[in-house]
Design a protein that fits this description.
This protein has 72 residues and is of the alpha+beta class. The protein has one domain: Alpha-Beta Plaits, CATH 3.30.70.20. 31% of the residues lie in helices and 19% in strands. The protein has three helices and four strands, in the order E-H-E-E-H-E-H. The strands form two sheets. It has a two-stranded antiparallel ribbon with strand order 1-4. It starts with a strand and ends with a helix. The model has no long low-confidence stretch (mean pLDDT 92).
Length: 72
Amino acid sequence: MRVVIDAAKCQGHARCHALVPELFAVDDYGTSSVIGDGTVPAELEERTRLAIANCPEFAIAEITLAEAQFES
């Protein structure tokens, strides 16, 4: 599993960071970003899916392996 955040959609609610601080960082304005390349360790997948579902702006997306390879 791998995730990305659309910075244009993020409004700084920081729910993702509250749920998975190991994966999401928050700047001084509350805008979230993915730590590292967005690869989610297996033990964080459940909480990450919860973070995706709880984003009120739908700014977090799970990307497939094919999409991840296309980005590289």
